[in-house]
Design brief:
Helix content: 40-55%
Distance between the termini: 30 Å
Structural class: mainly alpha
Shape: globular
Order of helices and strands: HEHHHEHHHEEHH
Strand order of the largest sheet: 1-2
Number of helices: 9
Number of domains: 1
Length: 354
């Protein structure tokens, strides 16, 4: 996501990746008397993950305000009946699932930050970068956001990647897109305004986009924790990553199942087309939600059911690059990219000691 190559609006150059995070990205805390300071690389990984979880929590709260369950666990917003109904076409429990995903990601950020503070390390606070606009559709809070869900380009290759028995991005393979149209343009995953609530197929296309975006976000977290766990040194930090990471996998499993219920349609306003995923064989078959065995480590080994990718080199920058390409940060400030870029670079520089 932030590798230094030109990435379009808001991209940064390689030289700015190593800039110190500004004050808005991290706050100093006092040592709380825990058993000792953590290895520098472990701190960098935890700080990067705290930032990633805050970004996830921000986007999931936006989804919850319009299409989830608003309560004391995930407060804010008042719901949008039309959008909620379009999501319910995929599953009548979508509102509860969205709520629980939002609650989970905030809990991850809160825990990691508290753990950093307990070890006398800087926790991560991105509130200074909440500059992006809210949806103007009924039900959304009018507050600043970290992420933009109104202009997305969603990579749906995760769908075919988990169904292929012969390809793995860790071995240099490129998988086809399940919904090609989502990967070539800017599509909203929440209504931009009340004008997006009609006609029905346009609103359903927005809900379908959201469903595939849910899976995209959570498959990224699944790989991210698996990749970074290979770099940490402290056994307790390893336990944290191995405990949080599988919850991201549980999220992903839920969302790819629900995305498979997205009805085939063509958006009458944008021309965005959702295909019948069951018309093209096993590579897109909707009920193949268990990871198909595929090649792993070397092609000479038997195929194996795995998380993919899990290559650790450049895992943080790869995850970040995918979020930029997704369009989540359209409109963000240069200072935001500087701060997050520094966290990315530090996490990728971390190495297991001993």
């Amino acid at each position: 996501m932030i590798k230094g190559a030109a990435l379009g609006a808001g991209a940064i150059g390689a030289g700015r990746l190593l800039a110190d995070p500004p004050a808005a990205s991290a706050r100093s805390v006092h040592h709380r008397g825990h058993r000792g300071r953590l290895p520098k690389g472990d701190v960098a990984i935890l700080q990067f993950l705290a930032a990633a979880e805050l970004l996830e929590a921000d986007l999931w709260k936006q989804y919850n305000e319009l299409g989830g369950v608003q309560d004391s666990e995930v407060p804010g917003g008042s719901g949008n009946p039309a959008y909620t109904q379009a999501l319910a076409v995929l599953d009548e429990d979508m509102g509860q699932y969205i709520h629980d995903n939002a609650d989970d990601e905030q809990s991850h950020a809160d825990f990691i930050n508290a753990y950093l503070e307990a070890h006398g390390e800087d926790s991560i606070n991105l509130d200074g970068f909440r500059t992006l606009p809210s949806s103007q559709a009924t039900g959304a809070q009018q507050i600043g956001r970290l992420t933009n869900l109104m202009q997305l380009t969603v990579d749906t290759s995760y769908w075919t990647r988990y169904r292929s028995d012969s390809q793995n991005p860790d071995l240099g393979d490129t998988l086809p897109q399940a919904v090609p149209d989502l990967a070539v343009g800017e599509h909203p995953a929440i209504p931009r305004s009340n004008a997006d609530l009609s006609p029905p197929d346009h609103l359903q296309a927005i809900a379908n986009t959201a469903a595939f975006h849910f899976g995209f976000i959570e498959q990224g977290g699944t790989s991210l924790y698996a990749g970074l766990a290979q770099r940490v040194t402290d056994p307790e930090v390893l336990r944290i990553l191995l405990s949080i990471g599988p919850t991201e996998t549980m999220h992903f499993q839920t969302w790819q199942d629900k995305a498979g219920n997205a009805p085939p349609l063509t958006d009458p306003i944008t021309g965005l087309s959702f295909p019948d995923l069951n018309a093209d064989g096993e590579l897109t078959q909707t009920n193949l939600i268990m990871p198909e065995p595929t090649v792993f480590l070397r092609r000479t080994f038997p195929i194996c059911s795995i998380i993919r990718p899990t290559q650790t080199d450049g895992i943080a920058s790869g995850a970040a690059q995918s979020l930029v390409a997704d369009g989540l940060f359209i409109g963000q400030t240069a200072e935001f990219f500087d701060a997050v870029g520094a966290l990315v670079a530090a996490a990728d520089a971390a190495r297991r000691r001993g």
